[in-house]
Protein backbone atom coordinates (compact mmCIF):
# COMPACT_ATOMS: atom_id res chain seq x y z
CA UNK A 1 0.00 0.00 0.00
CA UNK A 2 1.31 3.46 -0.83
CA UNK A 3 1.42 6.25 1.73
CA UNK A 4 -1.61 8.40 0.89
CA UNK A 5 -1.29 10.80 3.83
CA UNK A 6 1.55 11.93 6.11
CA UNK A 7 0.37 10.36 9.40
CA UNK A 8 1.17 6.98 10.88
CA UNK A 9 0.23 7.34 14.59
CA UNK A 10 -3.00 9.02 15.67
CA UNK A 11 -4.01 9.66 19.29
CA UNK A 12 -7.42 11.07 20.22
CA UNK A 13 -7.99 12.72 23.61
CA UNK A 14 -10.99 14.39 25.20
CA UNK A 15 -14.33 13.58 26.77
CA UNK A 16 -17.49 11.67 25.79
CA UNK A 17 -17.58 13.26 22.34
CA UNK A 18 -14.26 11.64 21.40
CA UNK A 19 -14.92 8.44 23.35
CA UNK A 20 -17.88 7.92 21.01
CA UNK A 21 -20.79 8.04 23.44
CA UNK A 22 -24.08 7.97 21.56
CA UNK A 23 -22.70 5.59 18.91
CA UNK A 24 -23.01 2.16 20.54
CA UNK A 25 -21.12 -0.70 18.95
CA UNK A 26 -20.73 -3.87 21.06
CA UNK A 27 -17.79 -5.12 19.00
CA UNK A 28 -15.78 -1.91 19.46
CA UNK A 29 -13.48 -1.39 22.46
CA UNK A 30 -15.49 0.12 25.29
CA UNK A 31 -18.75 -0.66 23.50
CA UNK A 32 -18.78 2.61 21.53
CA UNK A 33 -17.40 3.49 18.10
CA UNK A 34 -17.67 7.23 17.43
CA UNK A 35 -16.22 9.67 14.93
CA UNK A 36 -12.57 9.20 16.00
CA UNK A 37 -12.67 5.43 15.44
CA UNK A 38 -14.26 6.04 12.04
CA UNK A 39 -11.53 8.54 11.10
CA UNK A 40 -8.80 6.16 12.24
CA UNK A 41 -10.28 3.30 10.22
CA UNK A 42 -10.16 5.43 7.07
CA UNK A 43 -6.61 6.61 7.74
CA UNK A 44 -5.47 3.03 8.33
CA UNK A 45 -6.76 2.00 4.90
CA UNK A 46 -4.48 4.57 3.28
CA UNK A 47 -1.11 3.76 4.82
CA UNK A 48 0.85 0.77 6.07
CA UNK A 49 1.48 0.12 9.76
CA UNK A 50 -0.97 2.73 11.04
CA UNK A 51 -1.51 2.92 14.83
CA UNK A 52 -4.37 4.53 16.76
CA UNK A 53 -5.08 5.17 20.45
CA UNK A 54 -8.11 6.81 22.06
CA UNK A 55 -7.58 8.10 25.61
CA UNK A 56 -10.85 10.06 25.89
CA UNK A 57 -13.10 9.47 28.90
CA UNK A 58 -16.67 10.68 29.27
CA UNK A 59 -17.41 13.49 31.71
CA UNK A 60 -13.86 14.84 31.82
CA UNK A 61 -13.33 18.57 32.32
CA UNK A 62 -10.59 20.43 30.47
CA UNK A 63 -8.13 20.38 33.36
CA UNK A 64 -8.66 16.67 33.87
CA UNK A 65 -7.95 16.04 30.20
CA UNK A 66 -4.80 18.16 30.40
CA UNK A 67 -3.62 16.47 33.60
CA UNK A 68 -4.56 12.88 32.76
CA UNK A 69 -4.31 12.51 28.99
CA UNK A 70 -1.73 14.83 27.45
CA UNK A 71 1.43 13.23 28.81
CA UNK A 72 0.25 9.66 28.03
CA UNK A 73 -0.73 10.85 24.56
CA UNK A 74 2.68 12.40 23.88
CA UNK A 75 4.38 9.27 25.22
CA UNK A 76 2.80 7.34 22.34
CA UNK A 77 4.78 9.54 19.91
CA UNK A 78 1.84 10.53 17.67
CA UNK A 79 2.18 12.60 14.53
CA UNK A 80 -1.58 13.35 14.58
CA UNK A 81 -3.53 14.34 17.70
CA UNK A 82 -7.15 15.36 18.06
CA UNK A 83 -8.51 17.10 21.12
CA UNK A 84 -12.02 18.23 21.99
CA UNK A 85 -12.17 19.70 25.48
CA UNK A 86 -13.87 22.43 27.46
CA UNK A 87 -17.45 21.62 26.53
CA UNK A 88 -18.24 20.17 29.95
CA UNK A 89 -16.69 23.26 31.55
CA UNK A 90 -18.79 25.63 29.44
CA UNK A 91 -22.01 23.84 30.43
CA UNK A 92 -21.32 24.48 34.11
CA UNK A 93 -22.81 27.64 35.64
CA UNK A 94 -20.40 30.46 36.36
CA UNK A 95 -17.56 29.35 34.10
CA UNK A 96 -15.76 31.98 32.03
CA UNK A 97 -15.26 30.94 28.38
CA UNK A 98 -12.24 33.23 28.09
CA UNK A 99 -10.54 31.59 31.08
CA UNK A 100 -11.36 28.10 29.82
CA UNK A 101 -9.94 29.03 26.42
CA UNK A 102 -6.67 30.23 27.99
CA UNK A 103 -6.21 26.82 29.59
CA UNK A 104 -7.08 25.20 26.26
CA UNK A 105 -4.33 27.27 24.63
CA UNK A 106 -1.86 25.96 27.20
CA UNK A 107 -2.94 22.41 26.36
CA UNK A 108 -2.48 22.95 22.62
CA UNK A 109 1.00 24.38 23.19
CA UNK A 110 1.95 21.14 24.96
CA UNK A 111 0.42 18.96 22.25
CA UNK A 112 2.26 20.88 19.50
CA UNK A 113 5.61 20.69 21.34
CA UNK A 114 6.82 17.66 19.35
CA UNK A 115 5.51 18.92 16.01
CA UNK A 116 2.42 16.73 15.72
CA UNK A 117 -0.53 17.91 13.64
CA UNK A 118 -3.27 18.91 16.09
CA UNK A 119 -6.99 18.90 15.29
CA UNK A 120 -9.49 20.80 17.45
CA UNK A 121 -13.26 21.17 17.37
CA UNK A 122 -15.56 24.11 17.96
CA UNK A 123 -18.78 23.46 19.83
CA UNK A 124 -21.92 22.87 17.75
CA UNK A 125 -24.75 25.38 17.57
CA UNK A 126 -27.09 24.17 20.33
CA UNK A 127 -29.74 26.82 19.79
CA UNK A 128 -32.33 24.18 18.84
CA UNK A 129 -32.12 22.30 22.16
CA UNK A 130 -34.61 23.18 24.91
CA UNK A 131 -32.14 23.50 27.80
CA UNK A 132 -28.64 23.87 26.34
CA UNK A 133 -29.67 26.91 24.31
CA UNK A 134 -29.24 28.89 27.53
CA UNK A 135 -25.47 28.62 27.18
CA UNK A 136 -25.42 29.22 23.42
CA UNK A 137 -23.73 32.59 23.91
CA UNK A 138 -20.97 31.07 26.04
CA UNK A 139 -20.39 28.40 23.40
CA UNK A 140 -20.11 31.08 20.70
CA UNK A 141 -17.56 33.07 22.73
CA UNK A 142 -15.57 29.92 23.46
CA UNK A 143 -15.60 29.02 19.77
CA UNK A 144 -14.17 32.39 18.77
CA UNK A 145 -11.38 31.86 21.29
CA UNK A 146 -10.71 28.39 19.87
CA UNK A 147 -10.36 29.80 16.36
CA UNK A 148 -7.78 32.27 17.70
CA UNK A 149 -5.91 29.46 19.47
CA UNK A 150 -5.91 27.39 16.28
CA UNK A 151 -4.46 30.25 14.25
CA UNK A 152 -1.86 30.98 16.93
CA UNK A 153 -0.79 27.33 17.30
CA UNK A 154 -1.24 26.28 13.66
CA UNK A 155 -3.92 23.71 14.47
CA UNK A 156 -6.67 22.41 12.19
CA UNK A 157 -10.21 23.42 13.15
CA UNK A 158 -13.30 21.29 12.60
CA UNK A 159 -16.01 23.94 12.72
CA UNK A 160 -19.00 22.09 14.08
CA UNK A 161 -20.92 25.35 14.63
CA UNK A 162 -20.92 25.79 10.84
CA UNK A 163 -21.84 22.14 10.22
CA UNK A 164 -25.53 22.82 9.57
CA UNK A 165 -26.34 19.12 9.23
CA UNK A 166 -25.98 18.85 13.00
CA UNK A 167 -29.15 20.92 13.40
CA UNK A 168 -31.18 17.82 12.42
CA UNK A 169 -32.49 16.14 15.57
CA UNK A 170 -31.54 12.72 14.14
CA UNK A 171 -27.89 13.70 14.47
CA UNK A 172 -28.35 13.59 18.24
CA UNK A 173 -28.72 10.76 20.73
CA UNK A 174 -32.06 10.70 22.59
CA UNK A 175 -30.30 12.26 25.60
CA UNK A 176 -29.77 15.43 23.48
CA UNK A 177 -26.29 15.77 24.98
CA UNK A 178 -24.37 13.41 22.68
CA UNK A 179 -24.38 12.71 18.98
CA UNK A 180 -26.09 9.69 17.45
CA UNK A 181 -24.39 7.23 15.11
CA UNK A 182 -25.50 9.45 12.25
CA UNK A 183 -23.97 12.49 13.97
CA UNK A 184 -20.66 10.73 14.60
CA UNK A 185 -20.57 9.56 10.97
CA UNK A 186 -21.19 13.13 9.76
CA UNK A 187 -18.45 14.53 12.02
CA UNK A 188 -16.02 11.85 10.81
CA UNK A 189 -16.68 12.96 7.22
CA UNK A 190 -16.06 16.60 8.17
CA UNK A 191 -12.81 15.68 9.95
CA UNK A 192 -11.47 13.67 7.04
CA UNK A 193 -12.39 16.52 4.71
CA UNK A 194 -10.50 19.04 6.83
CA UNK A 195 -7.46 16.73 6.81
CA UNK A 196 -7.63 16.55 3.02
CA UNK A 197 -8.24 12.79 3.03
CA UNK A 198 -10.24 11.17 0.26
CA UNK A 199 -12.57 8.63 1.82
CA UNK A 200 -15.51 6.37 1.11
CA UNK A 201 -17.84 7.55 3.88
CA UNK A 202 -21.04 8.47 2.10
CA UNK A 203 -23.48 11.12 3.33
CA UNK A 204 -26.26 9.53 5.32
CA UNK A 205 -29.52 11.28 4.50
CA UNK A 206 -32.43 10.03 6.60
CA UNK A 207 -36.02 10.48 5.55
CA UNK A 208 -37.73 13.69 6.71
CA UNK A 209 -39.16 13.59 10.19
CA UNK A 210 -42.95 13.26 10.42
CA UNK A 211 -44.76 16.31 11.73
CA UNK A 212 -45.45 16.52 15.48
CA UNK A 213 -48.22 18.23 17.32
CA UNK A 214 -47.43 20.61 20.16
CA UNK A 215 -48.76 18.03 22.60
CA UNK A 216 -46.51 15.28 21.21
CA UNK A 217 -43.46 17.56 21.40
CA UNK A 218 -44.31 18.53 24.97
CA UNK A 219 -44.68 14.88 25.98
CA UNK A 220 -41.31 14.05 24.42
CA UNK A 221 -39.65 16.97 26.21
CA UNK A 222 -41.05 15.86 29.57
CA UNK A 223 -39.90 12.29 28.97
CA UNK A 224 -36.43 13.49 28.02
CA UNK A 225 -36.19 15.68 31.13
CA UNK A 226 -37.18 12.79 33.38
CA UNK A 227 -34.90 10.21 31.78
CA UNK A 228 -31.81 12.26 30.89
CA UNK A 229 -31.82 15.83 32.22
CA UNK A 230 -32.66 15.15 35.87
CA UNK A 231 -29.95 12.46 36.30
CA UNK A 232 -27.43 14.80 34.66
CA UNK A 233 -28.33 17.66 37.04
CA UNK A 234 -28.19 15.33 40.06
CA UNK A 235 -24.66 14.24 39.09
CA UNK A 236 -23.61 17.88 38.87
CA UNK A 237 -25.02 18.60 42.34
CA UNK A 238 -23.27 15.56 43.81
CA UNK A 239 -20.02 16.38 42.00
CA UNK A 240 -20.21 13.02 40.26
CA UNK A 241 -19.23 12.23 36.70
CA UNK A 242 -20.49 9.69 34.20
CA UNK A 243 -16.81 8.86 33.73
CA UNK A 244 -16.14 7.87 37.32
CA UNK A 245 -14.43 4.45 37.28
CA UNK A 246 -14.18 4.57 33.45
CA UNK A 247 -10.79 4.15 31.79
CA UNK A 248 -9.61 4.84 28.23
CA UNK A 249 -11.03 2.40 25.70
CA UNK A 250 -7.86 2.28 23.53
CA UNK A 251 -4.93 3.17 25.84
CA UNK A 252 -2.29 1.66 23.58
CA UNK A 253 -1.57 2.55 19.96
CA UNK A 254 -2.62 -0.27 17.66
CA UNK A 255 -4.70 -1.13 14.65
CA UNK A 256 -8.09 0.61 14.58
CA UNK A 257 -9.62 -2.31 12.72
CA UNK A 258 -11.98 -4.36 14.85
Number of strands: 6
What overall form do the CA principal axes indicate?
globular
User: Which sequence of SSEs, written as H and E, runs from N to C?
Assistant: EHHEHEHHEHEHHE
Give the CATH H-level superfamily: SGNH hydrolase
Strand order of the largest sheet: 5-4-3-1-2-6
CATH architecture: 3-Layer(aba) Sandwich
Described by strand count, sense and barrel closure, the largest sheet is: 6 strands, mixed
Give the CATH level 1 class: Alpha Beta
Class from secondary-structure proportions = alpha/beta
**Count of structural domains:** 1
**Total helix count?**
8
Gap from first CA to last CA: 20 Å
Q: Give the overall average pLDDT.
A: 87
CATH topology grouping: Rossmann fold
User: Helical amount among residues, as a percent range?
Assistant: 40-55%
Radius of gyration: 18 Å
Q: Please state roughly what percent of the residues sit in beta strands, choosing from under 5%, 5-15%, 15-25%, 25-35%, 35-45% or over 45%.
A: 5-15%
Regions with little confidence, pLDDT below 50 for 5+ residues: none
Topology of helices and strands:
Elements: E1 9-14, H1 16-19, H2 34-44, E2 51-54, H3 62-75, E3 80-84, H4 87-91, H5 97-111, E4 117-121, H6 136-153, E5 156-158, H7 181-194, H8 214-237, E6 250-254
Parallel strand pairs: 1-2, 1-3, 3-4, 4-5
Antiparallel strand pairs: 2-6
Helix pairs in contact: 2-7, 3-5, 5-6
